[in-house]
Amino acid sequence: MRSRLPSIFHDGDVTWVRTGLGLQLRLPTRQPRQSSLRLNSRVFPNICPRSSNSEIRPIHITQARYFSASNSTYQRPNPSFHRRIPLNLPRATPPQSTTMAPIPKTMSGILIEETGGVEVLKWKTDLPVPELGEGEILVRNEFVGVNFIDTYFRTGLYKSPLPLITGKEAAGTIIAVHPSVHSTDPTLQEGVRVAYVADHAYAEITAISADRAAAIPTGLDTQTAAASLLQGLTALTFVREAAGLAQPHATGHRQLGVSEGPWALVHAAAGGTGSMLVQMLAAHGARVIGTAGGEVKCGLAKGNGAQWVVDSTREDVVARVKEITGGKGVDVIFDGVGKATFDADLEMIARRGTLAVFGNASGPVPPVDVLRLGAKNIKLMRPVLFAYIVTKEERAAYTKELFELLLAGKVKVKIHEVYPLQEVGRAHSDLEGRKTAGKLLLKV
Ligand SMILES: NC(=O)c1ccc[n+]([C@@H]2O[C@H](COP(=O)([O-])OP(=O)(O)OC[C@H]3O[C@@H](n4cnc5c(N)ncnc54)[C@H](OP(=O)(O)O)[C@@H]3O)[C@@H](O)[C@H]2O)c1
Fold it and tell me: In ligand 1, which atom is closest to the CA atom of 297?
């Protein structure tokens, strides 16, 4: 008679729990004692319908495989037996409560009825709660991330139909799930904490497509998840796909035309996106130069991992960069400042360099005469996060990697200030006025 008692064993770096029913589950190596799982018919309807309430601890499942259905004793995993099985597992963060408050009809939020200055960000308390469409979930936002793009929609630089609830990212708790989601992703249940990059986040409640929700893993707090998602994904996708830098542990950076340790320059290196870029570039082995406005921000950029910092409010950036690189210039530039720095970028970039202009903090770069790129064979690009995370798989893979970097402490997020949602106008003014360093959040 096969035992139903679960037991745990190790195979190399991987920890497995064997259920005693021909199934083995892989546990993460990190913090395996943080959560528990009940092996009951709800979780494993097709595996152990009668083994109710046999609790195993510790467990936090990342992968499940059949082991050997016929074998009653322990054996090392044999890849030929492995196949994927459908599981109905809770995500990393289990529901906090099974009794959710009823969904209100109206909610508070920030509405833009006409484009303009910060005065057009209107606080409303009677906005209709969005209807739940097919494939969607409702999230009660706890923290909303402020991004420079929010100012572009406010001013009308980027067009959108009005009235608009803007805001591109938030983190909070699921309060309703459309029935169609149960079959596509049963782990998205009411009470689960999620972070997302999607529209209309400046509100108490947002309806998002379920495949945009990233369950926040145990060990990551909701505030950090909200503060890191959009800018962290931007930095990660840009370092990999725009600059073409390989995984941190891989060798060679051939796409940049250099053998190793490319010179990278990040403008606004103490800003939200800049801080993430500097940390990730440094982790990828780049020699990072950061520019920042003022002494305090320069200190922060250095703390992020920039080996050299140039104070853009006092120093001649081009001359300093040439001096630091021995006259060569930098192999890759990440420029979210835009109009004010574009011409200098062309001067301080190395031959065959990659210039990634990805923002308009000082205004959009005017149309460019491509003949200017020929003298040094410069690769000019205008990367956008949203075009790198189009598919569910792309979003999931990059988000997983970002969360792992955060959980491992390899990437940190500095929060400039948490503003009440009602004070979003002050947050926009501070961001546009170069008064901030790190991430701005809104507390709902
Ligand atoms: N393409 C994408 O997918 C994508 C994604 C995320 C962000 N972005 C872009 O990345 C840039 C940074 O965004 P963020 O949200 O992380 O903001 P941020 O960097 O935290 O703040 C903007 C910083 O830009 C610098 N800056 C220089 N000149 C400026 C000017 N004239 N006006 C305002 N700021 C100026 C300031 O830093 P110093 O004082 O240190 O110079 C300021 O603190 C923005 O252009 C944004 O649109 C693009």
Answer: 40
